[in-house]
Every structure is written in structure tokens, then in C-alpha cells.
Design goal:
The protein is an alpha+beta fold. Helix content is 51%, strand content 16%. Strand 5 and strand 6 form a beta hairpin.
């Protein structure tokens, strides 16, 4: 009895397991294709040249048949189930013709990118796609827009009874084809092109190889005319900000007008194959965004120029510290505006050409590799940009500051993203990478105030009258307009040797370069005074020929021996 019960339970378990396996098998089949009762009953049997077993074969066969004007055979690659049998015979070839024209001009399809397997399994050896290894029965081959709406062209896998499954363009994709054909159909120019020039040469038709250069020439001529016109307007405008702004936006305005004209021609006069249309579309979007961004940036530049001229003036360190600080902040704001504009324009371009959908997963999957490559290739550029923002925020230097960098006296003329432009004292321009500049020690002569002490040193004989020199120095220094704070003028003996003394003169000047000029003038006047009035104050070798020693204040009874020689630092007398 117990054995019979055991065998009964085993039989029931086997029955349920077989039922489950059968249901799973049926469910798995349903995931591989769409089961339908009939397919294109209104059409004849498909000719041998029609290949529909894989997505790649279906689209390739459709494009080849329509290229040969065999639209009746190409209709077998469409699922016309929404049409009656009579409508399938009548409208099938016309739908194939219109869809071929839409695909040729609307979106460039590379059949090599389509699956070559019957089940359209996603093959991803790297394992980065979460759907890798799963069969598909529906996939998108193109996405087109018309009247502000997006329409997808899709392939689906269908099976009738026990026949082999085939890949066909879905009925939902065929319903908007007439609407898409109105937008992407043959242009006015193409309708007048003789049929013999519509044969394909490479990826384009023969007539397109002639029309594209003419198209570029026409748009280029429009741009040249716009540049000349804006130049004339700039000369007509009153001098100042309007004329400056107009002269700076000639090229950006020309680029924007060229893109508008080119888009008009593409919409109403001529249309090219998808490979050319896609390239032109990306190029026009990029040029438009770049041109508008440049126009906006030039507007900001003119505003900053007016502010600088009104509040700051010329770039030098004669201005107060606050004014130079403000000018540096203006340039920092400009760099920030440029950075924001570049990011905004880049996002706009990518969104318009829909690269986020097609490249998003790839970029995210390759983020680590891309980061390493950018870190290596762009290290210098990124380092300079970060250093530029560091300089703008910390402000160790400002626009107009006078610095001594690697032994050169320079004004800071501009702080840019990747370099600093310095104006040397002899009016040359020294361009230094920002990162290199910040990594080297430099002396900022204007960090607090532009005024500066200058020192004049004269080596004179021990008999030189320092008090007399002090009075003359004050007289000469006070006569110089660039010498300030006269109460700080001073004169001291700062060194002495056996036959000479060093007299140092200190004066305060308004700024370094003007101080250098004042120092040279006072030095020349002091030397002239000594030369004309007291030549005996020059250092020299002194030969004593009498009992009177000119270095002494009084005659010494026990004077030096005649003929004694006292060493000095100059010529013998």
C-alpha cells in the first residue's frame, strides 16, 4: 500500500513539472516573437531577393530593393496588417517608396549596427549592458520629428503558424509615414533633377556631389556680405561702445545669419541624404550656439570695458588698491561667464543632437577610462584653469600690479584661463602659464601701496662734507614731482674704508618706475654738484707733497713726511 502511494505521488509530480515546463516554453516563445494569424494577405508571395530573418537582413534588403525602384518587393518588408487586402496591394508599394525617401533623408542608418541574429540578442562581451543575452522581438531603427512630435520607426519579429519568424517594419511605424514624407520627401530642387543624376556614388547621389559645394558657396557668400554690412554699420555708429560692439560681432553675426540661411535652404529648397543632412544639422546647431555665445560674450566685454574706463582707467599701479582689486574681480567675473556659457552651449548642443540617448550609456560605462585619459592629456590645461581661479579668488596679484618676476619688472596686464600676460618696462609682453607663475616666487611691489623707497649710494673721499651733501640732497629731491613724503628724506654714511666713505641717500617715491626716474635725476644732480664745486671729494690716491694734509681740518705741526703716499680708490693727483 505504501509503495502504491509513493508511485502515485511521483506520477503527479512528473505531470505538474511537465505542465510547468510546457507553459514556460510557451511563455519563452511568446517573448521571442509576435504570433499572428496572417501576414500581408493582399500581396503575392515574397520574391527570393527579400530577406527577412534578421533585423540586419530586413533593413538591408529594404534599402537595396527601394534603391532599385522595386517597391512591390520592398512592400513585403512592411507589416500592412492595418490595411485591407486591396489596400495592401495598392498602398504597399507607395508606403515603401515614401518610407525609403524618409529614411534616406531623415536619419542615416548603418545596417552594420543592427543585430545579425534572428533573436536580436544583445551581445555585450564586456558585460556592461544589463540586458545582454536577452532576446528581443521589437527594436527601434530610427526616430524622426515632424510638426513638433517624435515618431519612431521600429522593427518587430512576427510568426505565422509554424513558419519561420520574420522581421518587418511595424504597422505603428507606417501610419505616420505620409506625414514624415511631407517633411523629409524630395525637395523642390531634387524634383527637377534628371533621373540619371540620382544614381548613388559612394554614400551620396551624383547630383548631391555638385549641389553640396554650391550650397556651401552660397552660405559662405551670405556670411561675407553680412561681415561687410556690419562693418559699414560699425563705421556709421558714433564712436564708443556701440561702434566697438558692432565691430567685434561681425563674425558671430555672420555665422548666425549663415546658419539661418542654410536651414532655410535645407527646409524649402534642397535636401540631401541623411549622412549629409545629419552632418549639416550638427554643424549648424554648433555654429548657431557658438555664434550666439560669442555675441553675448562680446556684449559682456563691452560692459566690462565701460566699467573699467569709467571707474579704473588705464592699467597701472598708480590707481588705488581698491580699484585694481575691482578690476581683477571684473576679469574673474568674465572668466566665470565664459565657463558658464561654454557649459550651457555644450549641454544645448548635446541635447539638440540627441547624443545623450545614443552615447550616454557608453560614456557612463567608460567614465573611468575617460577620467584617466583626461587626467593625463589635460593635466596642464586643467591645472592652469584651476590656478587661474585660485589667483582670482586669493588675489596675490591684481590687474595693474607691478611685480618683479624672474628678475624682470613687469605690470600685470591680464589674468586669463591658462596664462598671465605681463607688460615689461620696455613695452614687451611676457606670457607665462598661470601654474608656472604661481609656483615661482615673485615680488609684488603694489600689494599694499605703489610708493617705494629708493636709495642712492655714492662712494666719496673721507674729506666729503656730509652735512653739505645732506642739504643739497634735500634740495634736489624736493624739486622732483615723483618724490613724496619729504619729511622722510635722509642722508647717512653707511660704510667706510681706509680712504673712502659710502654716503647713502633715501627718498620715498610715488611708484616704482617714477621712483627710478627720480632716483636717476637726483643722482645726476648730486654728481654734478660734486664735480663742479668739490672735485676733491672724489676717492683717489693722495700724494702728500707738503706739510698741509687736505684731509685734515687744521695744519698739523708734526705733519706727514713729504712724499708720503696714502692709498685711495681713484687716480693719483
Amino acid at each position: 500500500m505504501r509503495k502504491r502511494t509513493t508511485w502515485g505521488l511521483l506520477a503527479i509530480a512528473l505531470l505538474f513539472s511537465s505542465l510547468c515546463v510546457g507553459q514556460a516554453s510557451e511563455g519563452d516563445k511568446e517573448m521571442r516573437w509576435f504570433s499572428i494569424e496572417s501576414l500581408n494577405a493582399g500581396l503575392d508571395r515574397p520574391p527570393e531577393e527579400v530577406s527577412r530573418l534578421t533585423p540586419r537582413d530586413s533593413i538591408r534588403s529594404f534599402l537595396e530593393l527601394t534603391k532599385q525602384q522595386n517597391f512591390s518587393a520592398a512592400a513585403h518588408l512592411l507589416n500592412l496588417s492595418d490595411l485591407s487586402a486591396a489596400e495592401q496591394r495598392e498602398k504597399g508599394p507607395e508606403l515603401a517608396r515614401q518610407l525609403a525617401a524618409v529614411l534616406r533623408r531623415g536619419e542615416w542608418i548603418d545596417t552594420s549596427d543592427l543585430p545579425a541574429r534572428q533573436d536580436a540578442v544583445i551581445e555585450d562581451p564586456a558585460g556592461q549592458n544589463p540586458q545582454a543575452g536577452q532576446p528581443r522581438r521589437n527594436l527601434e531603427i530610427a526616430s524622426l520629428r515632424a510638426e513638433g512630435q517624435a515618431y519612431d520607426i521600429r522593427l518587430a519579429r512576427y510568426r505565422v503558424g509554424d513558419e519561420d519568424p520574420v522581421w518587418l517594419i511595424t504597422p505603428d511605424s507606417l501610419s505616420p509615414v505620409p506625414l514624415l514624407y511631407e517633411k523629409y520627401g524630395p525637395s523642390w530642387l531634387e524634383k527637377h533633377v534628371p533621373q540619371r543624376f540620382k544614381s548613388t556614388f559612394g554614400r551620396l547621389q551624383v547630383w548631391e556631389w555638385v549641389a553640396i559645394p554650391v550650397f556651401l558657396l552660397v552660405t559662405g557668400l551670405v556670411g561675407w556680405l553680412v561681415i561687410r554690412l556690419v562693418g559699414v554699420i560699425a563705421r556709421w555708429l558714433p564712436s564708443g561702445s556701440p561702434s566697438i560692439y558692432a565691430s567685434q560681432i561681425k563674425v558671430p553675426v555672420a555665422l548666425v545669419v549663415m546658419t539661418i540661411v542654410a536651414q532655410f535652404l535645407l527646409n524649402y529648397v534642397v535636401s540631401f541624404s541623411a549622412v549629409a543632412t545629419t552632418s549639416f544639422r550638427i554643424l549648424l546647431i554648433t555654429i548657431t550656439a557658438w555664434g550666439v555665445g560669442l555675441i553675448a560674450l562680446r556684449f559682456v566685454d563691452v560692459i566690462l570695458l565701460n566699467v573699467k574706463r569709467r571707474l579704473v582707467g588705464e592699467i597701472d599701479d598708480n590707481k588705488s588698491r581698491d580699484e585694481r582689486h575691482f578690476l581683477t574681480s571684473l576679469y574673474a567675473v568674465r572668466r566665470g561667464i565664459i565657463l558658464v556659457a561654454i557649459v550651457a552651449v555644450t549641454i544645448y548642443i548635446l541635447s539638440q543632437i540627441e547624443l545623450f540617448e545614443t552615447l550616454g550609456l557608453t560614456l557612463l560605462a567608460s567614465a573611468s577610462i575617460l577620467t584617466v585619459l583626461l587626467g593625463i592629456a589635460g593635466q596642464a590645461v586643467l591645472g592652469n584653469i584651476l590656478s587661474s581661479f585660485q589667483v582670482s579668488l586669493a588675489k596675490p596679484i591684481r590687474i595693474g600690479d607691478l611685480v618683479i618676476f624672474e628678475g624682470r619688472w613687469c605690470y600685470v596686464e591680464g589674468i586669463f584661463y591658462t596664462f598671465i600676460r605681463l607688460r615689461t618696462w620696455d613695452e614687451r609682453r611676457l606670457v607665462v602659464p598661470v601654474q608656472y607663475f604661481t609656483s615661482r616666487p615673485f615680488e609684488n611691489l603694489s600689494v599694499k601701496s605703489a610708493k617705494m623707497y629708493r636709495v642712492i649710494e655714492l662712494a666719496l673721499h673721507l674729506n666729503a662734507d656730509v652735512e653739505c651733501l645732506r642739504e643739497k640732497f634735500k634740495e634736489f629731491a624736493e624739486a622732483e614731482k615723483n618724490v613724496i613724503e619729504h619729511h622722510k628724506l635722509c642722508c647717512y654714511v653707511t660704510a667706510q674704508s681706509a680712504a673712502a666713505q659710502t654716503v647713502s641717500f633715501y627718498l620715498m617715491t610715488s611708484e616704482p618706475f617714477a621712483g627710478w626716474e627720480a632716483e636717476m635725476n637726483v643722482r645726476e644732480k648730486l654728481l654734478g654738484f660734486i664735480r663742479d664745486n668739490h672735485p676733491e671729494w672724489w676717492p683717489r690716491e693722495v700724494v702728500v707733497t707738503s706739510q698741509h694734509d687736505i684731509t685734515g681740518g687744521e695744519r698739523s705741526a708734526n705733519g706727514p713726511n713729504p712724499g708720503a703716499v696714502y692709498p685711495g680708490a681713484g687716480d693719483s693727483s
